[in-house]
Input
Amino acid sequence: MNRSIIRGTSTYFAANISASMPAKSFEITNGNLDSNGKAYAQALLLRNTLGPYVNIDCLYLAVPAALVATYASFQSALMAYALEASEPIVTYDAQGAPSVAPVPPSWRNATYFGGNPLCDRRPSTDYVQSPFSFFDDCSSGLELRVPLATTSLLFALAAMPSTTVESICTLATPYAMCIDAVTSAASHLGALSIPSDFAARVSNASSSVQTAGVGLMQFATTSTGTWNLLRQPLLDTSDFAFFGWILLADWVTGSREAVSFQGDSDTLNLISDAYKPQLYQTNTQPVEAATQILYYLVAVTTTILVAVGIVAMVYSIFVQLRFYGRNLFYFNRVVGAVWIGRPLSYLRGITAVLLLSTTNTSLAKSWSLTHFVPAPRSTFDALVISGEATWLTYVLNEVLLIFTRHSTKEYSSLSSCLSWLVLFALEQTNPITIIASLDRSCVGQNMDYTVTCVSGLVDVVSQLAFASGALHAVGCNVTAARPQKMRF
Output
């Protein structure tokens, strides 16, 4: 063609530029109309409903906030049940998610030609065809299938508690598979502690969805050959709304999307077919690798302490243990000042403070959930780590030696003991808890080259506790030094 689709340019395809460059119809070029500019079958039906193809705008629809809140409320109840009694839900979930083919009551006894408004040449089938999707190339008409996954199925049952299993499954095939799946799920629903305000949330979500007008469509013909554009809202007064709640659950979780097809004459707000998740393998590198250098440096100080301790022990045996026992309380101070040095001594102490400022958790798996479980430190572990943090006071004692002078002996011991007790008390009375925040954001690079997404933040270290631990070490030095100075 050698024409432009940008309006106003010198080669705009819809402009009659010359005899050799007449106006072109994009719908003819695209195959929506024949060479004479006439539409037939699905194309004619859509043009009569929405208007010309070239004037249809596709806008992404966001999930209503009320629907998200309703699903989150139910999911919290389900997760609580899964954590408390995981065995029943694990056994049920292991059966897999059967897939059924629902048909709206008003769509029966018709011949179907596709559920994607942009595909106008699909062949006829005796089953309802799948809705639109981003990857739909219009080459084949697959059947509309709705997977009865555990969470979405239980969510639909909770949203429609008065609906019977038989009335639901009369709308879907295979009937027996649907009966088994829904009956089995209903047996677990009674064990869930559904929030008292859940019914009100469902009502609000239903109103929001009905206002948005999201649903399904299908090109179809009657037994007499009359073309119809069938529409089915996801939520209405029929039992098909049960499958609508399942589709809405998929919309909330991101496995489906909703798009508004807006033409000159009308608008179709449609939900998509289900997308297969694109799984990415997480980083298998252990978290410890990020702090490995600290581990090695602390290990160096431990090695020096052990080596000097062994040498001292040999000498003590050689002199038949004739030495002043109280000097052993100054072992760390002497070794730290002479053999280890202040930088490594400071690093050892600040590492202990960092450890005290980190929540102690373990990963546990329940059902299909991997979650953090608090694992509080034992009293012995807390005593040891708090004692290691006193290396900070050793360094501060040396730095302040020019000020404390003759009172250093008494003051340094008091400051170390005070720091140890304060840090131990903080660990026991105010342990650090894990904090998680969800705030998904995605940024595209070079428009469509790649996309970088951040889902949230899991904070296992309290910066406030870290700063508090370090300041307590300083504060204990000042507190211990003041009475010694007054006495001096």
